[in-house]
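User: Second chain of the day. Same drill as before.
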Amino acid sequence: MRVHVRYFASMREMLGRATETRDVAPGTTAGELFDQIVAEMPRLAGLKRAVMLMVNQEYVPPDHPLADQDELAIIPPVSGGSHVTREELFRITEEPLDARAIEALVADPGSGAIVTFTGTVRNTARGKAVTALDYEAYAPAAEKMLRRIGDEMHQRWTINRVAMVHRVGLLTVGEASVVIAVSAPHREEAFEACRYAIARIKEIVPIWKKEHYADGATWIGSEADYQRELGRASVAAGGAEAAGQQAGAFDTQEEVVR
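Assistant: Same format as last time:
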């Protein structure tokens, strides 16, 4: 069946089109079609929790079934509404992490730099070959602690926006386990705040991990326990750079003129 899709405002600009017609399978819901569009254009993922769906000019839930020749309108946040909620910025999720989508959440016209840290699963730990990590979290408390860390960062540095998203579940080598994005007027404070964030996550966020090897698996405990075992001091406590089972990568976008 055929469905006519309409896009508006920021979504229209990101896609470069206002309308299109799509062929979809019978029984496809409005939410499923939107998920297909996001999968083709990952930059839209940052808007996913904020958009509303309309079918034939009526608001509908994501599980609303589509019919042939329906019009699906994807409605981004309206003028006067909050573009990004705190729930979007600080999350625990089972879904794969898209660093670019999380980075888009902190984009701000007043920022000259965006620093993004991606922690990934590496293939060794304490002399053993690691095949995967299994992360578990007390999600409501973990998200609360992520928000607290964000508040601490705003108190310490002149930054504009912060986003922190941590993945849970079974992750294989190379997969991203955490993404932190910080926007700021200048790069120095964005880097410092991002480094502080990963250290504090390891200290106070209730997340545990199980290391998997070719010959078995073992729970490591919290990230803070892991850091103490390795004898590494925390940046948040004024010590050296914190690093754990995750390998890390920093990306930065910065202003041309300062």
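The helical segments are 9-15, 30-40, 86-89, 99-105, 139-156, 187-204, 223-230.

User: Great, on to the next one.
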